[in-house]
């Protein structure tokens, strides 16, 4: 029995390759589902105007009239270890990484927030003792 090589070669050359798309589509959908499940779709509403830019430059906390009418506002700072008011160290007013700053000082004074430190310059007539207050936890 003889093997016909030419007939077999012609048969192989005439065949067109077939690509099965079903596994490709399955893998594609699996990757897409993974990306959708692990993605974070939370959006933040960022509105910027000239007054916000000015407050960021001075380091002043953005306290608006809708915040309330309290005498002191709690200003939390990560790893807060030093509070200076008019050159006087008032680190004793720190409680839980935050300090209470008088509303008049926030409105009329200079509040500079640095990593772990707050430097405050009070307006005329406000003593360093009255400018900051230890918040109650």
Order of helices and strands: HHHEEEEHEEHE
Tell me the helix content.
25-40%
Mean pLDDT: 78
Structural class: alpha+beta
Question: How many β-strands, per DSSP?
Answer: 7
Shape: rod-shaped
Number of helices: 5
SS strand fraction: 15-25%
Order of strands across the main sheet: 3-2-6-5
Unreliable spans are 48-56
| CA gyration radius, whole angstroms | 34 Å
- Sheet of most strands: 4 strands, mixed
Q: How many angstroms separate the termini?
A: 99 Å
Topology:
Blueprint: H1 5-14, H2 22-38, H3 50-58, E1 72-76, E2 82-85, E3 88-89, E4 98-102, H4 103-108, E5 110-114, E6 117-121, H5 128-131, E7 132-133
Parallel strand pairs: 2-6
Antiparallel strand pairs: 1-4, 2-3, 4-7, 5-6
Report on the structure:
The chain is 34% helix and 20% strand. The strands form two sheets. The chain has a four-stranded mixed β-sheet with strand order 3-2-6-5. Strands 1-4-7 form a three-stranded antiparallel β-sheet. It is α+β, with helices and mostly antiparallel strands. The model is unreliable at 48-56 (pLDDT under 50). A hairpin with a 2-residue loop joins strand 2 (82-85) and strand 3 (88-89). The termini are far apart.
């Amino acid at each position: 029995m003889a093997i016909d090589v030419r007939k077999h070669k012609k048969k192989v050359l005439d065949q067109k390759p077939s690509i099965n798309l079903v596994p490709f589509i399955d893998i594609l959908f699996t990757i897409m589902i993974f990306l959708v499940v692990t993605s974070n779709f939370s959006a933040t509403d960022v509105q910027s105007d000239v007054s916000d830019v000015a407050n960021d430059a001075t380091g002043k906390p953005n306290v608006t009239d809708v915040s309330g009418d309290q005498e002191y506002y709690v200003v939390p700072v990560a790893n807060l270890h030093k509070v200076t008011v008019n050159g006087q160290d008032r680190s004793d007013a720190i409680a839980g990484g935050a300090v209470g700053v008088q509303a008049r000082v926030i409105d009329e004074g200079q509040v500079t927030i640095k990593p772990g430190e707050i430097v405050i310059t009070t307006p005329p007539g406000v003593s360093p003792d009255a400018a900051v207050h230890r918040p109650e936890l």
